[in-house]
Amino acid sequence: MTARLDVTREEAERHVGLVTRFLALGHPVDTKQGDRTMKSAVRMAADLLGLNRVSFAYRIGKPDAPGAYFRAFQIAPDWSIPAARGEFCTRPAMAGFAIKAVATQRDAEGNLEREWVQQTRAPGPVEAVPDGHVVKGVSILQDGQGRTLAKWVKTREGADPLDVVEAIKAAFADYPGCAAPVAAPKAVREDLLTLLPCADWHIGMYAWGAEAGANWDLKLAEEAIGRAVAEAIERSPASAECVVLGGGDLLHADNSENRTARSGNALQVDGRWPKVLMAACKLMVRTVELCLRRHRHVTVRILPGNHDENSAVAVAYFLSAWFRDERRVTVDLDPSLFWWFRWGNVLLGATHGHTVKAAAMAGIMAHRRAADWGVTRHRYVHTFHLHHTAKIATEGEGVITEVHRSPVPQDAWHFGSGFLSGRSIPIITYHQRRGEYGRSVVPIDDAGEAEEAAA
User: Which helix (H) or strand (E) holds 299?
Assistant: First the structure.
């Protein structure tokens, strides 16, 4: 039978499906002779497919006379569509009922004697999921032609909305929310600039007291340096401009290898590098915010050192993103190893000191900032790297070059090599016309602070 039809099952399914589509669009199963108001579904499908109407009708069949496709593949159009419209009986289905089956009775000659339909209750209205429940799954019972006979919707108790609200509140219990903008000081000296040199903080350095003379780790660094910085800023006069100058070596290690990039020296580090980097970033944010409370505008520059050539860039961009909406903060993203800043008759410069000796900075300033040199009377250079205080040139040579202390204790290598230096956080104020106007130094003495706390 299949070979005689010369069509595949897929083609037969496509033909039957097309008839079903036209039935669903309202085309009847049969049309009365001479009625040209609407073509039958079979005729519409045959014309669309370009097939002979008589041959195609034989293949499709009728509800009471299955066609060749049904005999060969057991597929037929969905005759329930016209049946539900009442095409197979003298009256449409009753309200609330749907046609389930159509039956006919014929005499010996094949003439129609009677026709009747079977009706069943129509599907009920759409039921909403009960309050407090959510859909867990859906089961469907289908007949051989894929039509839905019954459907079961399985539900389960959902989360109580009040419980969800409480869970969200608990999750955000410790969230501080967006930081409020720091209020600007009510009055500042328009002719003053305050410089906060952040000299060799070496965040992440680890020292064991028995080996290096003092204990030091990430937590101690955040507490001791943060406390000294806050005191130094509080001592400074309210200025129109403040510069937070990262002098290099803000971090002790530049990556997770815990070695210096140039010499490969092993470093003792407290914590993984991402943790140390975040601690350094948070400490710098806290420093800038304290300066905002004291001064009207803050400029931030993070110089790279031999310990943090790459991390310094990361910290600078972190601060730029953090303060992107703060108009009173300018983050200088210049990647150079040198920093220059003019304040009236004052010219300031800085570098870490691992590539250029401090004594050479006066000549570099005169050459690279010749125009600023010519219109200024007071010139100062700040360098770092050596961890101890020193003044390299006198005022008579045109530039005062200063090396700043580090606020951190010695690690095992420096302690074993006999290095000696104090620890402090300096803050320096410059007058636009008079030069250095004042400074304050906050010493860091762990032993003395411990004794004071005990007393």
Answer: strand 297-302
